[in-house]
């Protein structure tokens, strides 16, 4: 679900206040065609519920999976997807660009 930053961060605060594990994914770099601009966010809770968007839907599943892993390990990750990568085709990023997404646990 796409959400403005105010709503996304309010939801993230609510999750944290309720004691739910949470992670924040942020688009940190794009090259070529990219469905969402740098600074776009996706927040995920420990149950896999999410709000926001880092790609308009084409890599969200992979980012949510990584966010769940980051919540468990407490180790941030930098993900990169591009049209030339086999993984990009698997997750549906066929828009011709590349995107880097930083995923971190939030307390």
Any descriptors?
5 strands, globular, five-stranded antiparallel β-sheet, single chain, 31% strand, alpha+beta, 107 residues, 31% helix
Q: Can you give me a brief rundown of this structure?
A:
The protein is α+β, with helices and mostly antiparallel strands and 107 residues long. The chain has helices at residues 5-17, 60-73, 86-91; strands at residues 22-31, 41-45, 50-52, 77-82, 98-106. A hairpin with a 4-residue loop joins strand 2 and strand 3.
Topology:
Layout: H1 5-17, E1 22-31, E2 41-45, E3 50-52, H2 60-73, E4 77-82, H3 86-91, E5 98-106
Antiparallel strand pairs: 1-2, 1-5, 2-3, 4-5
The counted number of beta strands is: 5
Helix/strand/pairing class, anyone?
alpha+beta
Which strand order do you get reading across the main beta sheet? Answer: 3-2-1-5-4
* Gyration radius from CA atoms, angstroms: 13 Å
Number of helices: 3
Overview of the structural elements:
This protein is α+β, with helices and mostly antiparallel strands and 107 residues long. It has one domain (3-106). Helices cover 31% and strands 31% of the residues. It has three helices and five strands. It has helices at residues 5-17, 60-73, 86-91; strands at residues 22-31, 41-45, 50-52, 77-82, 98-106. The chain has a five-stranded antiparallel sheet with strand order 3-2-1-5-4, with helices on both faces. A hairpin with a 4-residue loop joins β2 (41-45) and β3. The longest helix is centred in the middle third of the chain and has 14 residues, at 60-73. The radius of gyration is 13 Å and the shape is globular. The two termini are 22 Å apart. The mean pLDDT is 86.
């Amino acid at each position: 679900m796409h959400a403005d930053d105010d709503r996304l961060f309010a939801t993230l605060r609510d999750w944290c206040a309720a004691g739910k594990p949470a992670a924040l994914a942020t688009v940190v770099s794009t090259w070529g065609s990219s469905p969402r601009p740098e600074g776009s966010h996706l927040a995920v809770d420990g149950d896999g519920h999410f709000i926001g968007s880092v790609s308009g839907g084409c890599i969200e599943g992979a980012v949510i999976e990584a966010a769940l892993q980051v919540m468990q390990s407490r180790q941030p990750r930098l993900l990169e997807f591009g049209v030339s990568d086999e993984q990009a085709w698997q997750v549906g990023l066929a828009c011709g660009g590349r995107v880097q997404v930083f995923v971190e646990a939030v307390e």
